[in-house]
Amino acid sequence: MSERHMKLGAFLMAGGHHIAAWRHPDAHADAGSDIAHFIELARIAEAAKFDMIFIEDAAAIRERNADLASQAARSTAFEPLSLLAAIAVNTTHLGIVATASTTYNEPYGLARAFATLDSLSGGRAGWNLVTSASELEAKNFAASGLRPHSERYERAEEFADAALKLWDGVEDGAYLPADGAAFADRTRLHPLHHHGKHFAVDGILDSQRSPQGRPIMVQAGASDVGKELAARTADVVFAASQTIGEAQAYYADVKARLAKYGRAKTDLKVMPGISPIVGATDEEAKAKHRALQELIPDPVGVALLASYLSIQDLSSYPLDGPLPEMPPTNLIQSRQQLIVDLGKREGLSIRELARHFAGARGHWQVVGTPVQIADAMEERFAGGAADGFNVMAPLFPSGLQDFTTLVVPELRRRGLFRDDYEGRTLRQNLGVGAPASR
Ligand SMILES: Cc1cc2nc3c(=O)[nH]c(=O)nc-3n(C[C@H](O)[C@H](O)[C@H](O)COP(=O)(O)O)c2cc1C
């Protein structure tokens, strides 16, 4: 058995990550509103011993373009913390990671909600900290619209520090101390007195310290300031990279930032996305992929591409021509660059890029047999590009089942993935160690 096992997360998204999943004959078209569907997916992931499931979020519908919104089946979603509370009581070992925004929350409220999720799951919660780049989301909270990138990150830095201190403000054994003298041992409670630029918090969380110390911190920012925040505070980073070279560069970059915060390279797990399309044969996998791609109407693909490029519209450009020059963006800078690079590298037209992106939304897609997919994952895992993967099945539940029943056994055969959970908490299973209680 290999010393180092890859970490696996299942990135769940209603009917599937493929933009046209809801139109597929096997689709569960109402998936975004069906709790039984999400519980089924969580149980599939847990039976396969996945480290975690992950729920993305924006407090808004996902598409600003009406054509796209009406075709994309991504406009109904459960609020992640509420969804994961339901999943917590239907699972026992699986990590549950919810996205929540530092731009539209306050540290006390969110730290409290995650402390609750962590406690009721027995130490399995994680927080994907996002700064929220969606303009639609901004409109739901502030008349002034989306705040600048730098301001969102400045707020995120202060937010993360306050949340971490709130969780660390309650020591192990602070309540019901062994001597039975009192309900709370006040020497083990450390109120936070935070008066910063964005927040004021004077208080202490109304919960016990979690079985895993505090929730796992996850981030997925790829800008310089995003990677720096991750290096300082995150246990896991998600990423989107197409080529192994891009993935290796991202991996090396984030890991190199850890030392200045007194952290070891193993303290932060890098888990890029993979969109696997699995077939018993290569031909079967390609046919599955084709069947999904043919369901994407061009206007939907092009509108989705425009939204990932953070521009209003691409429809005035010839579909079979190259991408026009892109203006600078305040939204997701890294994703725009990734698309521009891919278009240039492979000489893709707008139509081709649109189809490509609609499929896996900029993530790495592998179409093949279990052996081919395991080869590709092993190459990145062994080649300094990943500590694990965030698996983004194109279609749920069948795409996740294909992965767990066909690819996971192949990974195990190679000694690359666990046979059973190492522990009960997400922190134990990820192997990132419990933070010291202060
Ligand atoms: C796998 C993955 C999942 C993400 N999930 C979310 C999400 O749920 N909500 C969100 O607002 N942003 C999400 N993002 C975006 C990032 O968190 C980040 O905000 C974005 O990349 C902009 O920051 P940057 O400029 O530092 O890259 C995700 C990114 C990746 C790669």
TrEMBL record:
Binding-site residues, FMN: D57, T99, H149, Y153, S223
Keywords: Flavoprotein, FMN, Monooxygenase, Oxidoreductase
Domain Luciferase-like: 24-384
GO molecular function, one term: monooxygenase activity
Lineage: superkingdom: Bacteria
Family to which this protein belongs: Belongs to the NtaA/SnaA/DszA monooxygenase family.
Record-given protein name: FMN-dependent oxidoreductase (Nitrilotriacetate monooxygenase family)
